[in-house]
Amino acid sequence: IRPLNLISKKEMSNTSVNSKLNNPSSLEKSSWVLSPEHFLISDTISLSPCADISWNNKGLQILFSLPFTDLISGDPAWFWDHTNAELFIADENGKNPKQFWFIPVKENDKWILKVGEWKKRFDANAENILDDIRCDTSMTYNGNEILGKVFIPNEALPQKIEQGKSFRIAYTFQAGKPMSIIYKASWPKTKGDGILDGPSHWGKIKFTE
């Protein structure tokens, strides 16, 4: 049975997480809240994605791993056509839903992780859609695995994170290149079978110490 409820632990040190990204062997992925077994997978290749979601008084932190050997630089303006991860999140009552995307981009021979908040509205802030400067990101890519970290501050979240509160969430991965996405993974449902229908179809995550 695929779990619909997750527990997010408090992460005290942002610096310690950044250092672990540069030393992947120090990451204890077996304890991450979203393991490969959580995901619904539609693929022609076999990958084992996982993700961790922690928090502190300033916001939400996402770590993710996607083993992939054919990474090409993405285009934030067309993130849905490239290798990416997406976080769908709303408050515990399903109000104020938001959709964030994370995409690897190569600039000056260096991989960076771009993040944006997608909105299908004419009044959307273009800066937040293509490059959300409110968020802090880092990533590494060794030719075999994408490791990424995104910190989303309280000001960008549906509501301020507090111990004991819960959010509605869904999470997706995809890998490939334009016109040839060869791998998709999602939790707790697929985009076409519930995620895009709104928060009532998402899972829940509770914030604890």
What does this structure look like?
With 209 residues, this protein is mainly β. It is built from two helices and twelve strands. Strands 1, 2, 5, 6, 7, 10, 11 and 12 form an eight-stranded mixed beta sheet that branches. Strands 3-4-9-8 form a four-stranded antiparallel beta sheet, with helices on one face. The two termini are 26 Å apart.
Radius of gyration of CA atoms, rounded to a whole number: 16 Å
Number of strands: 12
Structural category is: mainly beta
Biggest pleated sheet: 8 strands, mixed
What overall form do the CA principal axes indicate? globular
Order of helices and strands: EHEEEEEEHEEEEE
Distance between the ends:
26 Å
> In percent, how helical is the residue content?
under 10%
Q: Into which percentage range does the β-strand content fall? A: 35-45%
State mean pLDDT (0 to 100 scale): 87
Low-confidence segments, ≥5 residues, pLDDT <50? none
Short description:
The longest helix is centred in the first third of the chain and has 8 residues, at about 15-20. The mean pLDDT is about 85.
